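Before going further, learn to read the protein records used in this course. Taken together, the tokens spell out the fold as the letters spell out the chain. A record is reproduced here so that you can trace the correspondence yourselves:

***
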Amino acid sequence: MSSSQASNQHSGRLLGFVGVGTMGRPMARRLIEAGHNLIVYDRDQAAVAELEAIGAQAAASVREVADSAHTVFTSLPTPAIFKQVALGDGGLVVGSAIKILVDLSTVGSRIEKEVAEALLAKGIETVDAPVSGGAAGASKGTLAIMAAGNPISLEEVRGLFGVLGKVFVVGEKAGQGQLLKLLNNMLSSTAFAITSEAFVAGMRGGLDPEVMMSVINAGSGKNGATLDKFPKHVLPRTFDFGFPVGSVCKDIGLAVDECQALGVPMWVGSVARQVWNYAAMQDGTARDMTELVKYVERWSSIEGLAD
């Protein structure tokens, strides 16, 4: 079955979506604009209203979503919230209609496995499908989706993934998608931290920031930070990548813990986690992750390009 055929089989079926925040809202919007019928829930009524205005049905509770939709997507900020939504009082687990949970959150493999086992006992399959690409990728439909789960359930939702981005099937067990996503995010946040230090060192040494990035990107030091985040969000001093420091701290913390549980010592990862946690302690967790550069500038007694 092609992706378009798989997507079409869902076009008349009501889909559920719980958690329509920074990432969930643009993903839900893409599904609606692709012709799918959605019932959505979030504690933020303004976010729900935005989707309701383009055709979504607003639910009054998580239970209402689970009683209405065969396939329910979740995009939630923390492991604790995900577990509560899935297994708590009035959660997805007691829904009368839900048969597949597609979790797009980044919550770690241990919680994902726990939830998947509890849902399976009630006849509900879990597709573990965290995404990478940020809010911009969610809006454009260019996310990388790391999916793991029962092959039959994966095939059933594959066409829906095609609306959101490119899917990579990474395993058949819930938790495998989470592990890969955490490894990806740990690499990304560590690269940004060391790039920030190199960038500030170059400025202190009198190098032109534009030239610096161009040379690095033509050489062996290039990475996601030098190729994307610095040119688009740091050099113009907009700091609007769309991913908060608090989320970086959550993801790298989960990643280091899981890697250590697998027997990997994580010397570099642990230091990167400390850097991000220290930044979070300065001005709170809501600031954009690209603002880490400002902290490195401050710690190095150097003024920013436009500050």
User: Anything to note?
Assistant: The chain has 14 helices and nine strands. Confidence is low (pLDDT under 50) at residues 1-6.
